[in-house]
Each structure stands twice: as structure tokens, then as C-alpha cells.
Amino acid sequence: MLRLRDIGKSRNGYRLLVPRLDLRPGQRLALVGPSGSGKSTLLDLLALVLSPDPGGTLELTRDGRISDIAGLWRHGRQDLLAELRSRAMGYVLQTGGLLGFLDVRRNIGLSRALLGMAEDATVQRLAERLEIADQLHKLPAALSVGQRQRVSIARALAHSPAIVLADEPTASLDPLNAERVMQLLVAQAEEQGACIVVATHDEALAQRVGLQLQRLQVQRSGAGGVLATLLEAG
Amino acid sequence: MGLALMSQLAWHDYRADGRLSACAVLALVAVLAPLLVLFGLKFGLITSLTERLERDPGVREIVPLGGGRFSAEAIAELAARADVAFALPRTRQIAATAELSAGDRGVTVEMIPTAAGDPLVAPALLPLPADGVLLSQRAAEKLGVEAGDRLSAAFGRQVDGRPEYQRTDLLVVGVLPLGAFPRDALFASLSLLEAAEDYRDGLAVPALGWPGRSEAQRSARVYPGFRLYAAGLEDVERLRRYFAARNLEVATQAQAIAQLRSLSRNLSLVFWIIASLALGGAFAAMTASALAAVERKRRALSVLRLLGFSSTALVAFVVLQALYTGVFGLILAWGLYGAAELGLNRLFQQTPGEYACSLLFGHYLLALLATLLCSSLAAASGGWRAARIEASEGLRDV
Fold first, then answer.
1. Which of A46, B36, B263, B388 suits a disulfide with B337, CB 3.0-4.6 Å?
2. Which of B207, B230, B252 is the last residue of a domain?
3. Are B201 and B290 within one domain?
4. Is the CB of residue B18 less than 8 Å away from at least one CB of chain A?
5. Chain B interface includes A95 (CB < 8 A)
6. Is A2-230 CATH 3.40.50.300?
7. Tell me: the pLDDT tens digits for B183-220?
8. Residue A97 Rama label (left phi>0; alpha psi -120 to 50; beta)
9. CB contact under 8 A, A47 and B391
């Protein structure tokens, strides 16, 4: 679905290099590496919110149609990228990223509303699976951190995206809650047949929920610069 | 992306931010309400002054100065002009007096010709019957007569040093109010004035049975002047120039009309100076508040961006909130203006039907359009900044 070849991203003496990465339906990946290794940067590249350096290939295939993402970035087609993002991606942020002025039901339904999808039982069903069905009418501020993460997961899945990206989704949760939330995320993504990519520093948890580890290796270069390379899955 | 979804999101945020939204609305009201009152006062004042001038026929009167020589045809031509409401020949001033008596009371009055269409006379009183006349209020009071009474009019002349008199009986058809004519006067048909002039010239008036010389071949009558009223206020100056071009000096109220025009112009100028100062300030405040709102909502906006909302949608988010402020501000300002209008009109009421402060429906509409336009323009800079927010920025500050 998403195909990367020799994609790089440099900023402030830091350089991320992705020689080869393919995302396929049903795939379950965990990006692991020390902090500062560029897990979030790679996720942003995958989420089409960060432009790659010139050169290399970054393509998204949907319904048999291939979009040249690197080319869209070069031509500054922000709105086409936004459109692709809204259809193909679900994104779970480290700290919720919920809209404080919308109640939980509207927050979850937002990704569907944006695509003009009809209201159906999806939001209710997701809320039940994620154990937040009794919170639907509340504002995010009234929820615990763990509940907010579940709402965020529900929103990332509500429009049935092909790819679900999660950036340290459990970093701000206690271990018990973290385990439960991670299980729910993986189980729901699996149920929808979505490809899931989780950036996390908790390798043990990633392995316990059945994610395949993919490591970012960090090398320090002479002048205080950092080169991070995504190693082949293995 | 539907506009409906965006206006819903903008509305939810606007409500959640209730206190700040209310402040923005009140700031706008503080500018709009005084401007509406100021404009209402200016418009009401000028309208009632104009109406007052239009209602007073004396303002539209054009009086020829000095003696002239006009034929009946020339004056009929004047009366037929589109910018002339009423024109009627006058006989010589010196011949146009009459001594009226009723019972034991008498008064000498000037005689003024009248006919259908005379703006000084209520239309129902015209035309006059053959022996019918109108009296000015002062003359009627001196004689102690009312409409429907009869009186006797005497016209005197000197023939070879001997005084002679002729009398005729007249019916008082009506009395003109003091506002219409302030002096002692008799309004009669032109034929009575012509008869008096002929008699005083020593001629016979067969219609009334008055003796005198009879002229076998009399030349066409020449009138020294006329009564003339312009059709509208703006016609007065045009007619003045028309007569000036024909070397005829006239007295008009063109000055008073020009004064009103210049008062209206100057008040408009004052209003627009105040309005542009106030609107300039409001515009700056609205721009600042839109920019501040975008800074405050940076995180929410970048989340929307991450979800895949377009730049247009983000601009709409900011501009729609400014429009909400505009609409609420204007509704509130209308309400306050309405209360002020009621109070001011009660305070300054002089004549029924005259309002010190008033706005037309079109003015309300104009205020609405101008407010919405200014609101969205002021918010545009904030919207432009919002459109440039990257999805990746601000996502990770906790």
C-alpha cells in the first residue's frame, strides 16, 4: 500500500534514512529505537504530514491507483495530500489530540464526518469495544488520560483507514492501562484488516501484543550530527 | 469538506470559548451601536428638516421683484412648465386693495388672485364660486366673520377729483390658517381683481354693472407680476437661474434650501469621519483577536490538519467564527439602537410624523452587509495564518 525506497529526511544536523519499507494490509509493525532516533519523524513521513528530502520513492496505492507522494510534496499539493490522508490514514497521537470543544461522540465521528460518511453504528460499536461507551456525551477534559487515548484510537479507526499510525500511544499511561490500550488498538486494527505501525520505546509490550519489531539504528557522526537508519525487518 | 461540517465545528468551538466570544461580540457592539445611533440621528434630522421645507409652500415661492410686463399667455406658459407647480398673473399692487365691511366692522385688505392648485389653499376650497372669496385669518378676525358669512367689499376711485365707490357682496368660502398667510388679505378669483383694476383705471365693468369709460378696442391686458410656486425644492434654484437669464430679478428661498443641502453634506462628512475612525479601530481589534485565536487554537487546528481538513476548511473555521461575532454583534447593536431611537424620538418629538432619529430598512441591510464584509476581511489574516499551520507542528507539545 505504502512503498518507500531510499527516502531521507534531514533537519538540524539529524538525518533519517529509510532504504526500504513496504506497508501491506494486515501488517503489524512496531518502530523501536532509542529516544531521538526519529520514530516520530518516520511516522510523520508515513502519515503524509512531513515532506521527504528530494530523491527516492514514496508511493501510496489505493484501489489500484498509485499516488506519487514525493511528487505531490514537490509540487506543494497540500490539499491532495490532506485528502489522501483523510481517506487512507488513522493517526493516534501520544497525548490524545482530541478537540476539546467537541464531545467524545463527535470527536470519534469527526474522521467519518470529514469524508461525508453516513452516521451508522460504527462509533457506538467502537466505543463499546474500547470500553468508553458510557463516556460518549462527555467532553475530553472530563476523561482520564487512558480514556482519552481510547477515544483517540476510536477516532483513528472510525473511518476504516487502510493504515493506522500510532505515536507512543501508551507512553503517558500506567503499565496496566498501557497494556490494555495497546491490546485494544492492535485487536481493533486487526479486526478491520488495517496495517498498523506503532512507534514505541517499550519493546517488551510491543512483542507481547504481537507486533513485529523494526529497529532504527543510530550512528553519531563527527560534528555532533546523527544518522538514523531503518533496518530491514528481521 | 462540507461547509455545514465546518460551520458546526466552528460553532462548537465558538460556544466552548463562550467568554472570549462574548467579549468579541461586546467589543463590536461598542462600535456598531453608537454608529447606528449617530447615523439614525443624522438621517432623521435631515429628513425631518427637508420634509418641513417641502411642507411649507412659502419656501417654493418665487416672487418677481420690480415691475414687469407679462402677457396672460407668457404666464400660462410658465404654469405649464414641469418644474412649476402653480403660476397665476397678478394685477397692479396699488389697484389690488379692497375695503371690506361686515356689520359695523371694516378693514382694508390686499387682494391676492387664487385659482385651483394654489398651494396656500386647501384643495377642497377651490375652485371658488362666482362671488366666493377666502380670507386670511387676521382679516377674518378683524371682521368677525367665519366661513359661510357674507360681507361687502368696496372699491374706490377718483374721477376728476371726485371720490367714487362701488360695492359688491361676497361669500366667505373659507378662512386660511395663520401659517398660510400672515397679513390681512382677500383671496379672490383673478376676474375680481381685474374688475377692480379696470374700475380704478376709470373703465366700466359691465359684468358687475359698474359705470365708466368703455374702450371700443382694448389692447391685451398686461400684468406687472405673477404668483409662482416651484414644483419641488430642487426646482427653485433652476427657476431662479431661468429668470436671471431673462433679466428678471426674483426673490427666492434658494438660500435656505442650499443651507439645508450643505448642512446635510457636512453632517454626512462628520458621520463618515467618525465612522471610519471607529471602524478602523474595530477592524484592527478584530484582526488582532483573529490572530490571537489562531495562536490559541494552534493545536486544535493542527489536529484538524492531521485529520485531513483542507486549507480552505481551516480558513473557513476562522472566518466563520468572525461571522458569528459579526451577526451577534449586529443583532445586539440593532436592539440597542432600537431602544435609543425610541428614547430620542420621545425626547425630541415636535410634530407628529417627524422623527429625530430614524433608519430605513435599507440602512439595516447595509449595516449587515458592511459588518459581515468587515468581519470576514479582518479574520482573513488569521485564516491565512491558520491555513499555513502544518499538521506535524504542535502535535507533540504536551
1. B36
2. B252
3. no
4. no
5. yes
6. yes
7. 889 999 888 888 888 888 888 888 888 887 777 667 77
8. left
9. yes
